[in-house]
Amino acid sequence: MAAPARRAPQQPQQPQPQPRHLVSATASYANFYHNRVLEKYLKQDTKRVTLRQLTVFGRNLTEDKLLRSANYVRAELPVRLAHRIARFQQLPFVVGTNPHIELVYRMYWDAFETFRALPEITSLEQNRVFCDTVRSLLDTHLVVIPQLAMGIAESEPHLSQHAADKFMNETLRSRIGRRVLAEQHIALSADFEGSRPARDHWIGIVNSKCHARDTIDKCARLAGSIFRNIYGVEPPAITVDGFQDASFIYIPDHIEYILFELIKNSMRFTLEKHAPEIAARGVAAANAQPHYQTASEALASAAAAAAAPSLTPQPSARSSHRPRRELPLEDDDAADADHRRQPAHQAAASEHNPAPGQTLAPAPASAGAPASPLLPAIRITIGQSDTQIMFRISDQGGGIERQIFDHIWSYSHASKRRALAVAAPAHSMPRLAAKLNDPIPSTLHLGLGLPMSRVYANYWGGNISMYTMEGYGTDVYVSISVGNQSENLLDDYKGSGADVHGK
Ligand SMILES: Nc1ncnc2c1ncn2[C@@H]1O[C@H](COP(=O)(O)OP(=O)(O)OP(=O)(O)O)[C@@H](O)[C@H]1O
Ligand SMILES: [Mg+2]
Question: Where is this region: Disordered (predicted)?
Answer without folding.
Answer: 1-20, 306-368
